[in-house]
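Sharing a chain and its predicted structure for anyone who wants a worked example. Both blocks are below, sequence first, tokens second.
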Amino acid sequence: MIINLIPEFLDIRTSPDPVSAYHGYVRRHRGLLEGYWHNYVLDLDTPPAEAAIGAALAADRRDLERLLNTVDLDRVAADALDAAATALELDHEIDVVLMVGVGAANAGELVVHGRPVAFICVEHFTGQANPETFGLGLPPELIPLWLAHEIAHGVRYCSPASRSGMRRLVAEAGGMYDCWDLASRASLRELLINEGVAIHASKAAAPGFPEETYLGVSRRQYRRLREQEAFLSRAVADDLDRIGLGMRLRWLTGGLSAAARTVREGRTLPERAGYYMGARLVDRLVAEAGIAAAVRAPVSEFLEADGRGLEQEAIA
């Protein structure tokens, strides 16, 4: 289902008391918007949240208005969902949400009472960087790519056929997605595979972009990741079976200090290097079984595929 919250947000900005109207908006879409804030911004019941809300409501939105006048976002989202559904052999309902965020994540995944959600924050896809909204200036042509990535997470978490550890952890949490809780209960290997299959899903559903675009990095950063692959493989091997929030922060989160990304060799990991390594970890099983099977596979099947690959290399 496509859910477009953009008109409601824009109406809030013209209300007599926009901040109060925003809180009413959150209450009307409680599961989604509280999940968005908790997982991707900060807790709503804090003074910094009030400041972020005020800034988001007061920001210049002319770039967003131009986007809405030139791009049929509902059609873009519907086509993206259809493409992802075909590539991933979707076997359950998923909501795709178009929304205006507060300048945090450009896209993300949630599970609300057992129902997966893929959302896109359109302020980042106007094609024009906007310092008032923290908009990244990404072209709207990238929306299908990002939605496919998040839809793949929803399949891994909620498909009846998924045998992933992530599905079990979400179920144990009462059918709710909490990235911080999951990071404290899932191994780094599980987290990296989760991102790796989503990257491959976006390639399958939205083909034709440069490799670095699927990873969300610049061409220069992608070259650096490739050049450092041997080092990254050694470094990640020490962490793959470890569990803890620090693993997610070190390998998958931007903005971490260089000291926090320094590993045993005394070298510093590139920011968010886990996305690159996750894509590499799943390469063999995706090639063997296809993305629809891989996105539902448990960790053991990725390890078995890697083992078969090493045997074949040894024979060759």
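Comments welcome. The chain has two domains: 1-186, 187-316.
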